[in-house]
Amino acid sequence: MINARKAAIIGCGFVGSSTAFSLMHQGLFSELVLIDANKDKAIGEAMDLSHGRPFVDTSKIYAGTYEDVADCAVIIITAGANQKPDETRLDLVNKNVGIFKSIIPQIVKQNFEGILLVVANPVDILTYAALKISGYSKKRVFGSGTVLDSARFRYLLSEHLDVDSSDISAQIIGEHGDSELAVWSDANVNGIPINDFCEMRGHFNHEESMAELYREVKNSAYQIIQKKGATYYGVAIATSHIIDSIVHDKNSILPVSSYLNGQYGLDDICLSVPTIVNSKGADQVIEISLNDDEQEALNSSAHTLKKILSDLDL
User: Fold this and answer.
1) pLDDT tens track for 150-172
2) Catalytic residue among 25, 51, 160, 176
3) Domain span at residue 60?
4) Interior/surface letters 99-129, b for 16+ CB within 10 angstroms, e for the rest
5) Does the annotation mark 241 as catalytic?
6) Which of 100, 120, 143 is the last residue of a domain?
């Protein structure tokens, strides 16, 4: 039986421990299990986080094993090799698919019935791998996708326009990586098309600004890795936002990495697209209108991932 108030995080590196910290502050679970190949690392993180429990209304946090995940509502997989400076997310493929081939069967062995959220990179490839290895339904397995990229997009637009980011609707879709694309045709500020609002704020060089903002979004992770070695706070908060929609059955529309079976003209691939996220998981892919250039860019992004997948033994 699923315990709706219990979750597990597999991988206690920067992203896993930061995600645990974020979930702890949100109080979404009464029980949080930390699992890592280095058991001492998991124990240390659990101890450190637990010492802050008197100051927050949150969960029991402890280091555990795969036997502890059977009744979890959600398992968050952050385990995997870190992205190094000058290394793309796709460079991590073989190392991290190998890690998933070790992790996923141990989860399946426990008769786990909850939701599997993949956060490790390359997230779209690993989501597909987790889906195929586990044999779970496509709703139960999905990835964090471009939720963080879209947040970066909205943040940079808010800085550019000097307006509250919560009033901006703008999405990055496709691969969480170098072939991702900004959906400019659908971007708006409080319902006002993005270019119209830009002109209201005195910005008229649309093509130049759009290209620069897209470059900043796409290169943000590389810049952070170059400067501090890894990215983790942003993705931890983004992951908690996704989990919040699951736990509270919010039906939030988020650009998570979902399995496509004909949507957007694409088939048998996991790609980041707007998806209704609720207690069932990635409940329904939403097809938004794309202009011809955007559809071509999405097809190209999917092709990039398909080439990688064709070389994997899944």
Assistant:
1) 999 999 999 999 999 999 999 99
2) 176
3) 3-143
4) bbeebbeebeebebebbbbbbbbbbbbbbbb
5) no
6) 143
